[in-house]
Write a structure and sequence with these properties.
By secondary structure, the chain is an alpha+beta fold. It has two domains: 41 residues, no CATH class; 128 residues, 2-Layer Sandwich (Beta-Lactamase), CATH 3.30.450.40. The protein has eight helices and seven strands, in the order ααααββααββαβββα. β1 and β2 form a beta hairpin.
Length: 235
């Protein structure tokens, strides 16, 4: 600052706290008013002796706050649009799955919807080998669903891990997966459920993470589950 440095002459630097600085400025306002370069750096200007105009600085702060709010609104709008688009694609995919004619067609339609509508590497239906496994489905050893999801686990989302090859030719492109449990009560099964799951594979490492919700994937899985229970499985 220009002018006298009485402030630093009278106050030890170790005791240079804001209340004492403020009192000193109140008693010696000419030091601040007369330092035009400092005022410009602070976004202020002197309009009269002992008068500092804060309008420009206040306006700058208001503009910055307005920009932050506008940015937050834009982010919320983008998320809302993405969610709406995902829900729309999910509903269209569900309608397509409901057109399936048999188990193999159901698996083909699920994989096509995952790739074409959601940009995934693929999707598959896996069924434990306690009986026959339809063409196009992935076989799992008995207890395989519990091994992947845990005994009471309903779903798992996260990075791909070594295990069953669920995605066929697309397996090498999968970086993260979502697994959703199913319990199929098939015609002729005497009410005994067979353990199965729907698997969705993303080419991105953060395509599926444990922090994500799985409502849309679970909805698609429930559609697959109900459709699969329409037809018996030979063997």
């Amino acid at each position: 600052m220009t002018g006298s440095l009485d402030l630093f002459d009278t106050i030890d630097s170790d005791d240079l706290h804001w209340p004492r600085v403020r009192d000193w400025l109140n008693a010696n306002p000419e030091h601040l008013c007369g330092d035009r370069s400092l005022l410009e750096e602070l976004g202020l200007r002197s309009t009269a002796p002992n008068v500092i105009e804060f309008g420009a600085a206040a306006l700058t702060r208001l503009e910055a706050a307005a920009e932050r709010e506008a940015g937050a609104r834009r982010e919320i709008e983008l998320v809302a649009r993405a969610n709406f688009a995902a829900q729309t694609q999910t509903h269209v995919a569900a309608l397509d799955l409901m057109e399936a004619r048999n188990h193999a067609d159901l698996a083909r339609r699920l994989d096509a919807a995952a790739q074409g509508r959601f940009g995934l590497a693929g999707a598959a239906i896996a069924l434990e080998k306690s009986g026959g496994v339809p063409f196009g489905w992935r076989p799992l050893d008995v207890g395989g669903v519990d091994a992947l999801l845990g005994q009471n686990g309903l779903h798992w989302l996260g990075p791909v891990f070594p295990g069953p090859q669920l995605f066929g030719a697309a397996q090498d492109a999968v970086r993260s997966i979502a697994l959703i449990r199913m319990a199929l009560i098939l015609p002729g099964s005497d009410g005994q459920a067979r353990h199965a799951l729907c698997a969705f594979g993303s080419p991105e490492i953060d395509g599926f993470t444990p922090a994500m919700g799985c409502e849309l994937a679970a909805f698609i899985t429930r559609v697959v589950e109900r459709m699969a229970e329409r037809w018996p499985i030979a063997g």
